[in-house]
Amino acid sequence: MRIIAVLNQKGGVGKTTTVANLGSALARRGQKVCLVDLDPQSNLTMHFGVDPAEVKTSTYDLLTGGATFAQAAVAVEDNLTLLPAVIDLAAAEVELAAEVGREQILRGHLEKENPPYDLMLLDCPPSLGLLTLNALAAAGEVLIPLQPHFLALQGLGRLLETVELVNKRINPTLKVNGVVFCMFESGTKLAGEVVEDVRSFFAQAHGGPTPWSAARVFQTRIRRNIKLAECPSYGSSILKYEPSSNGAKDYLDLAEEFLNPPAVVPAGQVKTAPSASQHGHANSVTMPPVQESAKVGLAEQRSTQPAVSAAEHVHAESVAASSDAPPAEPGQADDDVATLPDAPASEPGPADDSAAAPPDAPATE
Ligand SMILES: Nc1ncnc2c1ncn2[C@@H]1O[C@H](COP(=O)(O)OP(=O)(O)OP(=O)(O)O)[C@@H](O)[C@H]1O
Ligand SMILES: [Mg+2]
Questions:
Q1: Substitution site in 15, 17, 38, 238 for ligand 1 pocket (most atoms within 8 Å of beta carbon)
Q2: C-beta of 182 in contact with ligand 1 (< 6 A)
Q3: Smallest Cα–Cα separation from 121: which of 7, 261, 28, 12?
Q4: pLDDT tens-digit readout, 300-349
Q5: 276: exposed, middle or buried (Cβ count in 10 Å: 0-12, 13-18, 19+)
Q6: Model confidence over 91-150: pLDDT tens digits?
Q7: Are 320 and 341 within 8 A, CB to CB?
Q8: What is the pTM of this model?
Q9: Per-residue burial over 90-100, b = 16 or more CB atoms within 10 Å of its CB, e = otherwise
Q10: Which residue has the least CA distance to atom 23 on ligand 1?
Q11: In whole angstroms, what is the distance from residue 88 CA to residue 197 CA?
Q12: 199 Cα to the center of ligand 1, angstroms
């Protein structure tokens, strides 16, 4: 089973829409798909017309009460199963605070129960906290929905830093599958520039040592389409709600590209359009050399933002129990930051200030 965490700590970028509709499109392709709602907002749950108030067994019970996948599973379309979330999930981070191995609970369930799906998509909340950490510990792949805006890019460095930390500490097989641009408006200059910068960043990383060395920028872009915003209120995926819409077409194309990806083109063979930075506008995006993967971030952030990184927020005992990482000093709690031990002194540690990010932007719609 492929397990894919759909992740971006920025809010409102299209994570839930992608999990729901990519999942539905993959199910149409004959895959047995399970969607897991790991967001207390329960948007994915409501997207399929499931009322969180009526849910008896949810991902909260899975993480805190020992319920099984089979007990929480709800069939929502052919080949498509949902593990719903309820608002109680927001309390899970606090309830699990003293639990040893709390970032591995979801992974433990998967290993024990081996649920019968081909694909599992994990809808992460817009934060890098314990729920996201559970997703990253359980997943083999990360799919990053991104809006082609300068501000939407600002958190990418921090996101990759977190993936790298998890990869080093608790899940060595974790890889970034790719970036999918959502709510795309072709024809805008900035969108084209951002796409080229992101594409060239990942192309340069190709074949390198990072967890994103085989990541792709999906050629399929999810266009802004009002039908995609409407379908949750009808409790169904876009394929059921409006199968002839651009939204349905885009997610079917994405499913095809996801299942049968074309080869990734290494750096040097990529023809890139002039990048934002080459255009020299004030908010240009600067991706660092990929060899300095632990320092992924944006130049502007380095100079203006305070230093905050996942590695500074330490819960040593739980991760030490699941890895060889040395215990580290407890750090200050942060609601929005994944908690992992500091890197050992011998390794180039990701705990520098380069990946600091500003607060998440509000949802766009
Ligand atoms: N391609 C699109 N065209 C138009 N509207 C979209 C599109 N994709 C998503 N939306 C709408 O944008 C809003 C945010 O999308 P979504 O909920 O998928 O983002 P998210 O990243 O899951 O947000 P959160 O971080 O709050 O969980 C929703 O109202 C959704 O219906
Ligand atoms: Mg969401």
A1: 17
A2: yes
A3: 7
A4: 333 333 323 333 332 333 333 333 333 333 333 333 444 443 333 333 33
A5: buried
A6: 998 999 888 899 999 999 999 999 999 999 999 999 999 999 999 999 999 999 999 887
A7: yes
A8: 0.80
A9: eebbeebeebe
A10: 12
A11: 40
A12: 23
Closest ligand 1 atom to Cα of 184: 1
At a CB cut-off of 8 Å and minimum separation 6, what does 263 contact?
A: none
Q: Which atom of ligand 1 is nearest to the CA of 250?
A: 1
Q: Could you tell me if 294 and 352 are in contact, meaning their C-beta atoms sit under 8 angstroms apart?
A: yes
Name the percent of the chain lying above pLDDT 70: 72
